[in-house]
Structure formats: C-alpha cells, structure tokens
C-alpha cells in the first residue's frame, strides 16, 4: 500500500464509524515505529470484529438458532465478513450450544472458510480438469505474477487473497480465473494486469 | 396468481398463461447461464432492453433470459423465436443491427451465425451439428424458459406430472413406473433409482427424507449446475414426485456454495412453488404435504459421498460414516433417506408423463434414457451435450464435438471424474453407457468427459487427479490419507525426472491396498486414474522414468526450450515477453535462452510467431549448444525464404 | 437375545445379534489387531487395521471388523494372506509419519521402509479426540484440517479453563505416545489449534 492510500484509509477509519481519530493512529504508529498502514489495518480488523458481532445474531436468528445449521451460519458470516475471527466462533457456539471444537473442525475442513482476514478482492484460479488440460498451471503463474502473492496468501495491504479452486463449473471457458464474482477466460498478461489494477 | 387447489386449477392456470402468449410474436431469448454470463451476456441483455425500447418495439417483441443452452464456449448465445435464428458470440455492439436487420427486417446477420467446416452458415439452432445429433429431453427446456419465472415452466406442461401422480396414481404405481423405466442414478455408480426408493419406502419409520445431491464436485463437470440454474422446477417436480412415492414429507437440496446462481434460482423456485401451492402443505389440494430446505455445501468434494453429505446436513463435518448400512435405510439423523443427483430427479417428470415404455425405448439394454455430458478439454465444440445412452465416444467427440482443436491428434478421453479413467484411442468406438464404461476400467460418474490431445501428458494427468484426491480426502482413514500422499510423492518424482525403475509397480502395489482397504468410495476409487493410465499409457510412464523424457512436452523438469538460430529473425517478441529475462539478443542478433534462468513457462514458445516457429521444445535430449552471443540472424523479419 | 452363529479362523463362534465381528472374535479369544478401537467409544473404522476377509454365500470380500455386524453363516479369516498384505502396507504407510511404530512394523516384516513423510508421531486414530468428547464431554481436543494436513489439536479456549490439567486421560490412551511426549504433562503449547494451523498453512 502506498503512503497516500494508507492515509486516506486511516482517514476513513477516523471519520464516520471510525474507532479512533487519525491523530491517535499516527501517534501509535510513531510510538511503535510501524507504518501507519499497519496500524490502520489492525484498527480496521477490530472494527470488523465489532461489526460482525451484530451480524452474527441476525444470521443465527435467520436459522432460528438451529444447531444443525452451524455450517450454514458460518457460511453466512464468512460471506459478509470474509473471515471467521475466533471470538465470533466462540459466540456462535455458545449461542447454539455446540462445542467450539466443532466450529474449528468445520472451519478448517471446508474450503469456503478462513480463519485469517482475507483481502478485499478474492482471486480464485480454477484448477478443474478441463482448465488443467487447457493450461491452468500457466494461467496460475500469470496470476501469481500479477497479484504478487501465492495461493493461500493474502497481500499485506489486504488488497488480494489468492486461492486455487477445484472447478467453478465454467469448464467450456477454461482456463478460468474468477476475480470477485467476474469470470475471466484465459486472460493474457496485459488483460490480467488491467483487471488487477482496477481493483483498489 | 392464486394458490392452485387441484390438478384442474393447474391446467386452467396453464391455459391462462398460454392465452397471454402469441407463438408468432418474435421473442428474443438470451442465455444467462454461468458460461454466457462470464462472457458478458448481461451487457448484451441491457443493450437489448434499451434498443428494443428505443425502437418502440416493447409491445411487439418479447425478451427472455433463459437457462444454459450448453454451447457455452460460443456464448453469449441469442436465439430469436419463432424462426429460432441462433446468434453466437454476440456483443453489445451487435444489438442495434440485430434489432434493425433481424427483428425489423427479417434478415439474418451472417457474421453471428454458426459456420461449419466448409464455410456454410447455419441459421437455426437445431441445425448446428453440436445440437443436431443430441437428444435433449432433460436439458432441452433450458433454452425455452426463464428459470426465474415459474409460469414459463408451467406453460411447457410443467408440474403436470406432479398433478397426474397426486390424483391418478398411488405411490406404489409411481414406484413401479420408475422401476420399470430402469432409471439409474446419474450421479456416480448408476444404482437403480427405483430400487433405492423402494428401500427407503419399505424401511419402517414415520419420518423419511428425500435429498437432491447438487454437490457436483467432479472437476470438469457442470451439467447439474446448468440444470439447477436453468430449470430448477424440473428438479423440484421430480423430487416432490419421489417424496410422494416414498412417503416423505421433508426434503433437502445439498448444493455447493460455489454455485451462487444455482442457489438463488433454486431459492426463488421454491418460493414461487410454495406460492402456487405446489410445495408445502396440501399440495394442489391433494392432502399431500412436502417441503424442502436448501443446504449449502461449504467446499469439500467428499461431501458428495452420500453418508458424508448426510452428516453435513446434520451440521457436522461431512465425513463418511464407517457403517455397513445404506443411507436409504439409515441416513440423516439415522432416518431412511433417499439421495439422488440433480439429473436423476429431473428425469422423473418425463418418465411419469410419457411412461416407462417410452423411456426404455431410448438407450441400451442396461442403461436407459439419455445422459448429459460435459464435453470439455481439447475438443472444438465444448459444452453440455445430452445424448441417448449407447452413443459412441467417436460420435460424441467428433460428430457433436467437432473433433480435436487446432488439428491436433486425439489421445484419450477421461470420463467419470477423478475416480474415473482415461480411455485411449483404441476404445473410441465404445458405446457409452454405465456398463461399457465400467468394463473399460472407467466409469460414467456424473458425466464429465474431458478430451485430451497429443499435447496432454498422461502421467501429468494421473498426477493431477491424485493431487486433487489427496487434497480432497477427508484424511480419516489410513489407506486413503497416507496411501494417496505416497502415490502423489511418487508421481511428483516421476514428473520431476527423478522416477526410478520399480515406481510403476510400487504405484500399483499401493493402489491395491488403497482400493481394498479405504473407508469410502473416494478412497476405493482413487487409484483409478493411475491404474487406467499405467494400463493404457505405460510407455509414457517408462519414457519419464527410463528416458527422462516427457513425450507430450508437459512436465517442466523434463523439457527445455531452445531458439533455432536458423529460424530466429530477432523479432524481439520472446525477449520482451519472457517474465524472467532469460532471453538475450538484440537488433538482428540471434536470440538465446539462458537455460539456467529459464523457468520453462512456455511464454516464448507461445509468442513466437508461427511463421517463424523458431522456439522449439525438446525433451529427453540435450539442449543444442547455442551460437555465441552477438551472432547475426540469417533470416530477416517479415521475409519468407 | 437372538444368537448368531459364525466361523472365525476355523472356530465355530456364537455371538449376540448386533455385535461386531471384532467383538465376537474377542469374546471367543481370537485376536484381531486394532489401532483406533476402544471399547468405551463408538466404532470409528479409520485405521483399517482390523480388516478381515469375510465369506458369505461363497463370495469373499474384505470388511472392517470393528463396524461389520455378525450374521449367521459368515466365515471369517482374520489373518489370510490378503489381510496380512493389507496390514503390512498400512503399517508401512503409517510408519512414515510415526516411526514410533517400528516394532509393530517389523512384526509385519517391514524391514526397509520405503516411504517418507513429515514426522508427527500421530496416526490420527482419534482416540484422544473421541474419548474427550464421548467419555469426558469436554471437547478439549479436535481434528483440524483435512487430507494430508489433518492433525489433532487442543482447543485453546477449552484448555485455558484448566480442565485438561485435571484430567489427562488422553495421555494414557494415545497409542503412539505423542500427546504425553509433546504436552510435557504440563503445557499444551505447540499443539493447540492456532499452533497447528500456523504450521500446516505455511507448508
């Protein structure tokens, strides 16, 4: 993240709905000797956690607090929050009356879940068979080059998360990369760069 | 529309819908399945809306967004009724001309039509070879209806089979019809659906479940997705009929969350059906109650296994159960639970409407009806094809699929998903049905058909599938978890050029134990990709192991790229595009690849203009010594010798 | 209770209906080796070590004896060449991540192990996880991940309540001794959920 961008970001946080004024963020940044982008990142995460707590109740309510809906509830939270903080897992399990071990098990078993904050843009490269035989590994190399992270990683500025997926069911267009919810059929290097740079 | 209270109400409703529709009125349909959507059909649709209204045609032309037509590669697809003019690869900028020429002037636009090998244009969708030789009885309605509008389905006679069942047939008669039709499960093993229904029906218990398996996890297969997205009511109608026959009042649809459009179209279908009285309490006034819950799968291939799927519905991690008791007897919460896949359910209304005799008149002795295949890979016309059971691989791949892309040579076709097998050219005339595929050491699976050409390395394919399966294994039982891990290691080693004599035999030895000792079908069938390739393509394994050569030129560690100094024109394209700056050269100087820097990404090979073809790929032989840096090119750019 | 008659290793055996082959064999004094079985826990069927050869109506197949219920007329072989071959491969496969099994492996003639893997000293029999859940109701230990990355891990949120220090019953039932060794009898650091995830995800 460039310095300019970090600044706007911390301003956003300081503004409406922000947790701390920007002056506080920069004081923390100075004191700890870490860039302000890192500080605002942490603060943003805290803000998200506060936000999720509210959403969680609504999602649990949607499923009438049914224990057997645990996976569905976690999917709902994952979708809105992009990851599952452990205190959120804890509170969901308490409300449903299921052991927290079950939530960890589910969250680490299924691909849809993440226990770490995810990037603002989700990049998924399809590794299905049809894509594989039509050159998915080479597309993956191009994507890695464009977003500068490896599969399973999230960029430090939380711009992208990259993952490989096993078939998105779009086989006739393979190889395919899905960026947020847009499908791109075998984009060349330049096309990919254009799409990536359009993501803020 | 008000709630329908009888079969007569349903027919009245249908007549009312039809009376509002003029079959001669032009109707522009645009595919909005996932494939066409990915290719930009939304923008084309927006352009159509605005052009139609700009030209004051809103009353004179209908516009409909339909489900997937199957010819996904050539999307976005538009079909204009009543003449069924089919346009492929339509862009928003084509829309004004479509309105002025075709809709107002009745003239087809040549450049948007399908062109066959001889340059002949084909205007009607049904005449295009890709469609012409198919038999689309399950998938055919997709192109006619808007999946978000239940009236479209009812207009085609939808839910009449349900009406017939509820008012004219006993559950036993329904069961008998499905059994006589010999409908076999389209999701994997091909188990007779009627027998399974009967087991669940006959198992004692007040509460029984019926379930749609829409956890289409086979990579390379997307027919269930397209059916559920494009015609959700047909699946739902089949499910309700099954519930009636089995005596179930509660159903589930287990659908992958990776299919967001399927989830939303299905949710909408459920609420529309409830509103019409086709789902819920007292369906069509018959006294039969039945409702459905959607359960989204969170991303695990193993969840398609029946006991794992049912464990997941209970809200636990979807791992297979170790029991020797069928889910039809003891499934969700240990209650009798009948599971069939999307395509199987979608066949049910057809069988009820047209009878078991009609159904058994299609197909082969042991496999009746049609099967939808996802024909993908290195074939020209990729997409979804529905053909009668028993059509040969050759007909599917060549007549419908148009043969291999870019004039390459056919090498193999992979069927049955990760647990299936790779069939070689010698089996190209195999009639495709459940039993023939099994006899050939592959399987039907859910219907993936991935065509491979001479540029596909079969060892790499086996390695690919084993990686997939090791990644998707739940890891519970020892043979599957550790056996696949070791098989992956060996295959990696072979592809890395570090294979040793005896590796093939070791793979086979592990395979046997994984096959015999694993807990569930994933493990039991996981060695198939290895066993079918060591059987049919053993020479390729030997080339990798003994000759350190990848005949297809795929395995990076065994190939090198080299620029032929006699052919290089110093055009500079490869030099510019090489991502690791491994190529040196200059104006009029022969370009040279630094083998130590080269990552074998293949970029230079792909970008070198075909008229030069100066970059060559070699395997199993030493890289020729490059000329010294600074050598002048023999050939000039743009000049042919 | 209805009786079922079957034959195990040439011996006619009478068993109660609803029993598994393993239970019937043990009652009759016939040994079938197991790794994930525990009489206080629901059968799990994961190690596959108790695989036996079963013949019914002249057809023979391999079944897992800890989950297969006895039936009249079954003929069971607990140590046929087919069974031994499978156990030998299973132990060789497990040995790669759990070298502590070397004695068992040599019993099956695995002299020169051919496989390598990350050494975890855990065979994922799940005894600890299941015992903690089914017998103790504490759910302090769980599985995380899947496939090759599947591991056992202590749940930080539960361990921190002190419940584990008062119990430690999983220490004794761990067949490879991983838990007592790695927990040092006091600290669970290194095998909590967060630790394990940090390790497997960085691979």
Structure description:
The complex is a heterotrimer of chains A (200), B (641) and C (203). Chain A has 9 helices and 4 strands; from the N terminus they run ααααααβααβββα. Chain A has 2 domains: 3-109, no CATH class; 121-197, Glutaredoxin (3-Layer(aba) Sandwich). Chain A is flat, with a radius of gyration of 19 Å. In chain A, a hairpin with a 2-residue loop joins strand 3 and strand 4 (182-185). Chain A is an alpha+beta fold. The termini of chain A are close together. Chain B has 641 residues and is of the alpha/beta class. Chain B has 5 domains: 10-14 and 16-128, Glutaredoxin; 150-359, Rossmann fold (3-Layer(aba) Sandwich), CATH 3.40.50.11540; 370-456, Ubiquitin-like (UB roll) (Roll), CATH 3.10.20.600; 459-545, NADH-ubiquinone oxidoreductase 51kDa subunit, iron-sulphur binding domain (de novo design (two linked rop proteins), Up-down Bundle), CATH 1.20.1440.230; 559-619, Alpha-Beta Plaits. Chain B has a 5-stranded mixed beta sheet. A 4-stranded mixed beta sheet of chain B has the order 2-1-3-4, with helices on one face. A 4-stranded parallel beta sheet of chain B has the order 9-8-7-10, with helices on both faces. In chain B, strand 17 (583-586) and strand 18 (589-593) form a beta hairpin. Chain B starts with 6 loop residues before the first helix and ends in a 22-residue tail after the last strand. In chain C, a hairpin with a 6-residue loop joins strand 6 and strand 7 (151-154). Chain C has helices at residues 21-27, 81-97, 102-107, 127-135, 156-159, 163-167, 169-173, 178-183, 193-201; strands at residues 3-8, 11-16, 51-56, 59-64, 75-77, 141-144, 151-154. Chain C folds into 2 domains: 3-79, Ubiquitin-like (UB roll), CATH 3.10.20.740; 127-201, no CATH class. The mean pLDDT of chain C is 92. Classes of the chains: A alpha+beta (200), B alpha/beta (641), C alpha+beta (203). Chains in contact: A-B, A-C, B-C.
């Amino acid at each position: 993240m460039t310095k300019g961008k970090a600044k706007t970001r911390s301003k956003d946080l300081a503004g409406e709905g922000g947790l701390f004024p920007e002056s506080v963020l920069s004081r923390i940044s100075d004191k700890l000797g870490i860039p302000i982008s890192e500080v605002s990142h942490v603060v943003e995460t805290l803000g998200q956690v506060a936000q999720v707590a509210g959403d969680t109740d609504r999602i649990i309510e949607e499923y009438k607090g049914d224990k057997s809906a645990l996976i569905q509830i976690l999917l709902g939270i994952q979708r809105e929050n992009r990851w599952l903080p452990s205190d959120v897992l804890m509170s969901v399990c308490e409300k449903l009356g299921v052991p927290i071990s079950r939530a960890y098990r589910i969250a680490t078993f299924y691909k849809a879940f993440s226990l770490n904050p995810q990037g603002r843009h989700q990049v998924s490269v399809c590794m299905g068979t049809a894509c594989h035989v039509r050159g998915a590994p080479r597309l993956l190399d191009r994507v890695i080059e464009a977003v500068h992270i490896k599969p399973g990683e999230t960029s430090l500025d939380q711009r992208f998360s990259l993952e490989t997926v096993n078939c998105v069911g779009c086989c006739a267009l393979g190889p395919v990369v899905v960026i947020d919810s847009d499908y791109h059929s075998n984009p060349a290097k330049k096309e990919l760069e254009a799409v990536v740079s359009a993501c803020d | 529309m008000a709630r329908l209270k009888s079969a007569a109400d349903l027919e009245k409703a249908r007549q009312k819908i039809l009376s509002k529709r003029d079959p001669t009125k032009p109707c522009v349909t645009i595919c909005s399945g996932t494939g066409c959507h990915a290719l930009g059909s939304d923008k084309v649709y927006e352009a159509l809306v605005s052009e139609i209204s700009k030209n004051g045609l809103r009353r004179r032309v209908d516009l409909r967004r339909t489900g997937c037509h199957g010819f996904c590669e050539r999307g976005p697809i538009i079909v204009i009724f009543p003449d069924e003019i089919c346009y492929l690869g339509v862009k928003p900028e084509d829309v004004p001309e479509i309105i002025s020429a075709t809709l107002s002037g009745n003239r087809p636009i040549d450049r948007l039509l399908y062109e066959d090998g001889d340059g002949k244009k084909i205007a009607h969708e049904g005449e295009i070879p890709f469609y012409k030789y198919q038999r689309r009885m399950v998938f055919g309605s997709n192109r006619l209806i808007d999946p978000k509008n239940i009236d479209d389905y009812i207009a085609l006679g939808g839910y009449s089979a349900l009406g017939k069942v509820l008012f004219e047939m006993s559950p036993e008669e329904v069961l008998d019809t499905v059994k006589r039709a010999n409908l076999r499960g389209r999701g994997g093993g091909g188990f007779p659906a009627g027998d399974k229904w009967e087991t669940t029906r006959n198992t004692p218990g007040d509460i029984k479940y019926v379930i749609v398996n829409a956890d289409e996890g086979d990579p390379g297969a997307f027919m269930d997705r397209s059916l559920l997205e494009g015609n959700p009511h047909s699946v739902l109608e089949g499910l309700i009929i099954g519930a009636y026959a089995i005596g179930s009042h509660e159903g589930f649809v287990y659908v992958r969350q990776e299919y967001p459009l399927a989830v939303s179209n299905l949710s909408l279908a459920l609420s529309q059906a409830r509103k019409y009285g086709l789902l819920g309490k007292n369906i069509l006034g018959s006294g039969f109650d039945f409702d459905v819950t959607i359960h989204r799968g969170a991303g695990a291939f193993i969840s398609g296994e029946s006991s794992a799927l049912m464990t997941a519905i209970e809200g636990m991690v979807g791992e297979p159960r170790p029991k020797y008791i069928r889910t039809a007897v003891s499934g969700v919460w240990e209650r009798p639970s009948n599971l069939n896949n999307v395509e199987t359910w979608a066949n049910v209304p057809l069988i009820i409407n047209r009878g078991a005799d009609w159904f058994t008149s299609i197909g082969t002795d042991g496999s009746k009806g049609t099967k939808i295949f996802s024909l993908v890979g290195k074939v020209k016309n990729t997409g979804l094809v529905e053909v009668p059971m028993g059509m040969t691989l050759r007909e599917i791949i060549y007549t419908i699929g148009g043969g291999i892309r870019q004039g390459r040579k056919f090498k193999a076709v992979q069927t049955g998903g990760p647990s299936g097998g790779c069939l070689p050219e010698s089996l190209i005339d195999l009639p495709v049905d459940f039993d023939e595929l099994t006899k050939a050491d592959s399987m039907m699976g859910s219907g993936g058909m991935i065509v491979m050409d001479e540029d596909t390395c079969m060892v790499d394919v086996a390695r690919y599938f084993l990686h997939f399966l090791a990644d998707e294994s739940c890891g519970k039982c020892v043979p599957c978890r550790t056996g696949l891990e070791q098989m992956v290691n060996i295959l990696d080693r072979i592809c890395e050029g570090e294979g040793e004599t005896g590796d093939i035999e070791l793979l086979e030895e592990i395979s046997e134990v994984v096959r015999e000792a694993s807990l569930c079908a994933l493990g039991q069938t996981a060695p198939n990709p290895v066993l079918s390739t060591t059987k049919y393509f053993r020479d390729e394994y030997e080339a990798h192991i003994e000759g350190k050569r990848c005949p297809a030129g795929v395995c990076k560690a065994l190939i090198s790229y080299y620029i032929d100094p006699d052919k290089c024109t110093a055009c500079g394209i490869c030099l510019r595009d090489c991502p690791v700056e491994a190529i040196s050269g200059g104006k009029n100087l022969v370009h040279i690849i630094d083998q130590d820097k080269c990552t074998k990404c293949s970029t230079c090979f792909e970008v070198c203009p075909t008229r030069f073809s100066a970059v060559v790929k070699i395997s199993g032989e030493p890289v020729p010594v490059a000329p010294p840096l600074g050598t002048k090119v023999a050939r000039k750019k743009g000049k042919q010798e | 209770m209805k009786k079922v008659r079957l034959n195990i290793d040439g011996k006619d055996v009478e068993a109660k209906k609803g029993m598994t082959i393993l239970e019937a064999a043990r009652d009759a004094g016939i040994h079938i080796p197991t790794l994930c079985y525990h009489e206080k826990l629901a059968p799990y069927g994961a190690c596959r070590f108790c695989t036996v050869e079963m013949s019914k109506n002249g057809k023979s197949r391999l079944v897992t004896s800890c989950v297969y219920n006895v039936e009249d007329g079954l003929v069971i072989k607990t140590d046929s060449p087919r069974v031994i071959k499978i156990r030998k491969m299973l132990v060789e496969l497990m040995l790669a991540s759990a070298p502590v099994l070397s004695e068992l492996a040599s019993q099956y003639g695995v002299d020169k192990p051919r496989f390598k893997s990350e050494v975890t000293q855990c065979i994922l029999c799940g005894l600890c996880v299941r015992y903690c859940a089914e017998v103790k109701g504490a759910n302090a230990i769980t599985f995380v991940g899947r496939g090759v990355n599947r591991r056992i891990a202590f749940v930080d949120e539960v361990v921190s309540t002190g419940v584990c220090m008062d119990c430690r019953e999983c220490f004794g039932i761990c067949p490879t001794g991983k838990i007592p060794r790695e927990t040092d009898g006091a600290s669970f650091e290194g095998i909590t959920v967060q630790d394990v995830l940090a390790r497997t995800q960085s691979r």
